[in-house]
Amino acid sequence: MTFEPRSAPVESTHLTAVTDGEAQVFTWEEDARIEVRNLGGEIVIEANAAGLRTLAGHLLVLAGEGVSDGSHLHLDDGNGLEDGSVGLVLERSDAE
After folding, report:
1. What does pLDDT average to over the chain?
2. 3-state SS assignment for residue 62
3. What per-residue confidence (pLDDT) applies to 90?
4. What is the pTM of this model?
């Protein structure tokens, strides 16, 4: 993947998910590009800078105070990832 740098202001898309009565707001930056590939023995997550900030934000939401164990976000090629990507689930697990 090759990405062009961008100098315009960042815009975003917000998604609010409710789990066990708790609302989590996940944000995608406008030009976020995230691709997930399964290479057999390893998973590759390739993203431009906006995509990396977007993923970091998703992880921070799930790590937030008061977010319940098991809260998760499904991403796939029709929902937040580039076409052809394998699915990715970000899930909070507080079990030791």
Report:
1. 84
2. helix
3. 95
4. 0.78
For the segment 16-51, what is each residue's pLDDT rounded down to a tens digit? 766 666 788 888 998 999 999 999 999 999 999 999
Exposure string for 70-80, b = 16+ CB within 10 A, e = fewer? ebebebeeeeb
Round to whole Å and give the CA distance between 61 and 50: 16
Q: How far apart are CA 9 and CA 95, in angstroms?
A: 40
pLDDT at 9 (0 to 100): 37
Q: What is the dihedral of CA 49, 53, 54, 55, to 10 degrees?
A: 100
d(CA 2, CA 74): 25
Q: How far is CA 37 from CA 7, 10, 46, 54, 63, in A?
A: 28, 26, 8, 18, 24
Q: Is-contact 24 5, C-beta < 8 A?
A: no
94-51-82 Cα angle (round to 5): 100
3-class SS of residue 60: helix
